[in-house]
Amino acid sequence: MSNEKNMHQFDELMTTYYKQIGQAHIENILAELDEKRDEINRIKIPQSLNVWVKKQGNKKRRKDFYRRITSRASLVVLFLIASLAIITFTVEAVRVQVYNLILETNERYTSISYEEAPNGDSGASMKREGYYPTYVPEGFVLSKEESYGDMIVTVYEKGNEQIRMMQSSLNGDTQLDTEDAEVIHLDIQGNEGLLILKEERVILHWANHEAVFDIIANIEPEKVLQMAESFTK
Amino acid sequence: MFVFLMSVDDEVLRTQLEEIYYLYRKELWYVAYDILNDEYEAEDVVQTALLKMARYLEKKVDVKCNKIKALIVIIVRNIAINIYRQRKAYRTVDFDSLAYDLSSDDDVIPEVHVLRLDQIHYVSKKLNEIKPEYADILALRYEYEYTNEEISKMLDIEEGNARVRLMRARRALHDVMEGDIDE
């Protein structure tokens, strides 16, 4: 009995000791990271990882969002409040920005238009020479390049894979199919963009001060982003 | 309207996973890449670790605390080591052959040890140098108080493997304490 009691006490003692070892290990890990702080700070995280995390966050938020919005009535109220808010936002925004990206989403598509601000500079029409990517994913070759009015369409192909790029003037609206799609807001060369992931298809939409761009492809979104970031004249 | 909804949502509901990522992404990437030396594999490891971490975090936990930071580093490190071993075609442990090891957990003889609390950081560091997974699993079991089952899911190993690793970690620790393992 006494031996059993001793063993029990010993087990308790060792458990406490292991806990102390665990705590010391945590402190050692943190100290080791601190020692390598300069090296760690120089690391550049791949954009694809940032996109993945954003996508995971959006999934979670959407799930939580739909859980909260359980009745049709509350959805209507939210819609009205949001509509008023976006009008306010837009009026405020046009004072400081030349163009504003206005998005209106319903269940099936996202409608986007670019409006010239009342006090903004003119120059909405795209210059004819257009933009081109300096990066094209390996193996893709230019298969088509055509102009339709203000729009330039460029197509790259590699077997069954296709990248279709469109650039057009800021005049006019764009409607994007966002039904059941993953929609991610991101930054393309300092401009707001939308990455839409729907089944195997990737759509990237953004605009700069001169033109509106769309890339539609059935390749990895990371490569589409890399292409967009490489756009130049 | 969509932009407005999304921005409101973002402000209110930034997920724990995102919080952890934006706080520690460089550390996590560094740890994974340091082991694997491959960007794609490092990215996979960070993603896997974040998803696992999200499953085990309580909703109200403060993700900025050091204990959480160390936990995600431990998870990343162990997943990266698993992948590294698979890549090197290391043989996996045959649990049947280890059954005798699991028959008793009395792997410590009380009389031979003197517990020196002033040397605890040294002992822990030494154990980490011998085999980081051993120090990691002791921390997960005794400091974070996860069960063997939880540890196995967190580190992508079999539950039996977690038990074996824990037992070996304790033995290795005792060897370090006795000075059986030289510097």
Mind explaining what this structure looks like?
The complex is a heterodimer of chains A (233) and B (183). Chain A has five helices and twelve strands. Chain A has 233 residues and is an alpha+beta fold. In chain A, the strands form three sheets. Chain A has a seven-stranded antiparallel β-sheet. The longest helix of chain A has 34 residues, at 2-35. With 183 residues, chain B is mainly alpha-helical. Chain B folds into two domains: 3-89; 104-182, Orthogonal Bundle (Arc Repressor Mutant, subunit A), CATH 1.10.10.10. Chain B is built from nine helices and no strands. The chains are: A alpha+beta (233), B mainly alpha (183). The interface between A and B is large, with 53 and 55 residues.
- Give the chain pair forming the largest contact, with residue counts: A-B, 53 and 55 residues
Strand order of the largest sheet of chain A: 4-5-6-11-10-9-8
The largest sheet of chain A is: 7 strands, antiparallel
Task: Name the assembly state.
Answer: heterodimer
Q: Structural class per helix/strand content of chain B? A: mainly alpha
Q: Round the Cα radius of gyration of chain B to an integer and report it.
A: 19 Å
The poorly predicted ranges of chain B are 1-13, 90-106
Weakly predicted, low-confidence segments of chain A: 93-100, 116-128
Q: Please report which band the strand proportion of chain B falls in: under 5%, 5-15%, 15-25%, 25-35%, 35-45% or over 45%.
A: under 5%
Number of helices of chain A: 5
List the main descriptive attributes of the protein structure presented here.
heterodimer, A: alpha+beta, seven-stranded antiparallel sheet, three-stranded antiparallel sheet, 33% strand, elongated, B: mainly alpha, Arc Repressor Mutant, subunit A, 2 domains, 9 helices
What's this, in brief?
The complex is a heterodimer of chains A (233) and B (183). Chain A is an alpha+beta fold and 233 residues long. Chain A has helices spanning 2-35, 37-41, 47-68, 72-94, 221-229; strands at 99-105, 109-116, 132-133, 141-148, 151-158, 161-169, 173-177, 182-188, 191-198, 201-207, 211-217, 231-232.
